[in-house]
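Hi R.,

Here's the chain you asked about this morning:
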Amino acid sequence: MAEYKRPTSEAEFKKNFKQKKPLMNDTEAYYEASRCLFCYDAPCVQACPTSIDIPLFIKQIHTDNITGASKTIFDSNWLGNACGVVCPTGVLCEGACVYNHQDVPPIQIGRLQNYATNKTIDVDKVIFKVGKSNGKKIAIIGAGPAGLACACEARTLGYDVDIYEAKDKPSGLTVYGIAPYKITNEEVLKEVNYLQSQLGFNIKYNKAINSKEELSTLENNYDAVFIGVGLGATRQLGLEGEEKEGVIGAVEFIEELRMKHHQVKVPAKVVVIGGGNTAMDAASEAARMGARKTVLAYRNSKEKMGAYHFEYELAISSGVDSLFNVTPLAIVGNTKVEGVKFAKTELVDGKLQTNMNNTFIVRCDMVIKATGQAKQGHLYRLIDGLELDSKTRIKINDEFQTSNPKYFAGGDAVNGGAEVVNAAYDGKMAAQGIHNWLQNK
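And the predicted structure, written out as tokens:
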């Protein structure tokens, strides 16, 4: 079990958060590519949400056609570099590799993807072409993975594109919400700069769209609008004591860590509430920031957790302890957090029930809530005729068009929260949907 010293410098922070999937060198990439069987009807391609021709780009790497490999990747996934390291490849492409059935390690597809695109980005190789201008303009709300992919695809189709981004950096979740040991800010921003320099889309930073007047301006000035805003702040639990000093949402905690690195102060004892991938990241990060004891608390059994197994194993290997079948009742302390009062839960007739006769307190100085994010319903309800489902997700048709025909949507706004690669696919396909709609108007 790992034990981490509290980082007091950038060098120590980087040591604690060393990359899970480090960049391959040329020799590693050549030999890894040589292992591929180049399967017919390859299961890895079927498992990729963006359907990258994986055997093709691996063969291109093996024959030293790095530019060709990068083009194969980006043609299917505009965020091919970031996805190479942040995607859960173990349950997607690599999880589908035929070697898994032969007790042989699967091809490291993600790292090969990251290797090729990194080489191309580093030399600023021109592989994209802006489409002939058609005189039409698209507005995109949100510079996250879905918005960026939509912008790139739209530029190749000849549209002028403006992205309206609420924050001061692009890429949304990838730069603000993913654990630092998965990808660095520098690598994320390098890919965005590369795409923007070649395709020429415009990003307007610190330009949140929050009012009906702002939406009306977009509707009047653009031929179509794409909504790619993702999710919002961590949801409130409604717990007694939730307002105390030392209580923070996991999304907010991770964002602060991504922006401030070793300057973030994590206390000695931390409780993380939740059982999803974000909870695993937050717990692992707290441990890597020097917390002496980090406890992951989940209301159901280990088997019921939403997190991928490998994410849980990473948290445990970082020194995190876990408590299952417990539900929080209150956050205790005066003005500051001193602990969390829990009750045990148990299955009764197939339903999870709280046993109020079995309660206890876990002492801590900080509580991280990893219990889901609120949807951006306040924005959606400002758009005339925009239909939402019962979970405040935007309804779309097969072309990613909403019930208000001028608006298209994708990513978390539609699926309620999925992977970066899913958002990249949605953005690309939405741009094609916009193109089809405007061509046929």
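The first strand starts at residue 137 and ends at 141.

Let me know if you need anything else.
M.
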